[in-house]
Amino acid sequence: MAYAAEVTLIAVAIPVPAAAAISRAIESARAAKAQGADLVEWRVDSLAEDPDGPTAIATLVRDSPMPCIVTVRDEREGGAFSGSDEERIAMWIAASEVIPAPAYIDVELSTYHTRSSIREAINRIAHAKSTQGKSAHAVDQPRIILSFHDYSGRAPGLSARVAEMWADPGSAISKVVWTARTVRDNLEAFELLRMRAKPTIALCMGEHGLMSRVLAPKFGGFLTYARIDEHGTAPGQPTTHELIADWNFRAITPRTKVYGVVGFPIAHSRSPAIHNAWFRAANVDARMFAMAVAPVWESFKATMAEMFESPVLDFFGAAVTVGHKQHAIRFVEEAGGVVDPRAKRIGAANTIGRGADGLLFAINTDVDAVIDALAGAAMRGKRALVLGAGGAARAAAFGIASAGASVVIANRTMNRAEQVAEQLARAAGDSPALDVRAMELSALGSQRFDIVVNCTSVGMEGGGASSENPLPRGVRLDDSSVVLDAVYAPAVTPLLAHAAACGSRCVGGFEMFLAQARRQFEAWTGSPPPTGGPPCY
Ligand code: ATR
C-alpha cells in the first residue's frame, strides 16, 4: 500500500571538505533557511578522512541552524570519500552523540549491504535508546536514509533496488537519484513515489530532471534538493529561492496540472517563466516545464504520448516550438483529436491542449501573433520575404499573405520552401489561394522587400548560428521596410542590428512571442492571462 502523503521538505546539500570550512558552511545554511529551506545535508566526504573529522562533525551538528542529514558519500556513488569503514563509523558516532542528534544519516545501499560492520554500526546508532542528560525522555536518534545514485543514466534493475530499500526494516527513508536520459524518466520517478512503501526520495538529475525536483510534492516525495550557489551538489538543482519564488513550490498539490514547452533547443525558452507567472497571478494550479525533445517525429510522439497518457501526471497541454510544429498536427490527428482548420491548412500547430471533452486539440496561435507584432504595417499589395520553412515560417507566410501581401519564402533547404509555397498557394477548404512562392536564397539578389520576417533559428541564443544574420547580403532594406525577427533571445539579433542600420522599422520577436503565448494561455484555461503588473520573467 502506498505511504500517506506528507509535506515535501526542501533540503540544501552543503559540502564541508575541511574543518576550516565549517563557519562558512553554517552561514550558507542560515542563508538557505532564511530563503525557506527546511533541512541541511552536511556532505562531509573528505572531512571524514581527516583525523579531526569527528570533532568537526560534532561542531557542525551542534551549530546546524536546521535539522540535518549527515552524509559521507562514497567515491563509487559520486562522492569524494575513499577512506575506511572505521572512519565513517567514527563520524556517525560523533554526530549522533550531539544533542539533538542529526535527524538523518544517509548511507548508500551498496555500502550498507556489502559491509556488515557498517550495517551493524548504523543500526546500533539508529536504534539506541539514549537517555543522555538529565531528561527522562529518550533523545531522538538519527533515522537512516538508504540511498542509490547513478550519475551516468538509469541503472538496470532500478526498481528492484528500490524494492530492496523499502523492504529493509532498519531504514526509515529510501532515496533513489539518477540522471534522466530524457524528460520521460521523470515519469518513472513519479511512479516510484506513488508506489512507495515508506517515505521516499526519487529525483532525476541533469537538464531533463527538473520536473522531478519541482513536482516532488505532487507525488508526496519526502524531500527535494536545492542548491545554495551556482554549483550545487548534483546537476539540475534549482536554488531554494527559485523553488519558492519562481515555482511556487509550497503551493504544489496532488492536483497541480502540468504543461510543457517542447522544442530543440529549448533551454533559452521564456515560456515556462511567463506561463508560470500567469498561472500564479490567475490562481491556476498549474506549472509549465521546458522539455528538450530531439527534433524527430519518433521522439516527439513518444514524449507526448507518455505525458498525455500518464494517469497521474495531469498533463494538460504543450507549447510546441522549434522542430516540432508539424509533428504537433500529426500527433493530434493520430490521437483522434481535433486539429483547427487553419493550423491544418498551414501544416503546423504551436499549441496542443486537452478540451473539456477529453479530446486533444491543436491550434496555431503564431498567425495572429505575427499580425499583432506587425501592427500598423500596411500589407495589401506589399512584398514580403519570409525566411525559413518550418512551422513559424508557415504561420507567418499564411498570415501575411492572407492580409493581402505577396510573399516570397526562402530557406536554406529549397525543397522545404517549395513545399510550403505550394501548400499555401493552393486554395483549400474555405481558404482562398494565396500569393506565396519559393525562391532560392541565392536568387534573391538585390531585391527590396517591404516586410521581412525571420522564422529560422539563425541568430538564436544557444543555437548553432547565434552570431549570424539569416538575410542574404544583397537584399535591400530601407527606411520604409519593416523587419520582424521571430527570434526573441537575444532582444537585438544580428538581423535586427542590420535592419536598424538600414533605417528600417524593427520589431523584436518578444512582442510576437507574448502575443502567441497569451492565446495559448486562453486556449488552455478559458480566460486570457491576467493584465496589470507585468509577469516576473
Ligand atoms: P519552427 O517549426 O519553429 O519554425 P523548424 O521547423 O525547425 O522550426 O524550422 C527551423 C527553420 O530554421 C528551418 O527553416 C531551418 O532551415 P532548414 O529547413 O534548411 O533546416 C532554419 N535553420 C535552422 N538553422 C539554420 C541555419 N544554421 N542556417 C539557415 N537556416 C537554418
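qc> The chain is about 35% helix and 20% strand.
qc> done
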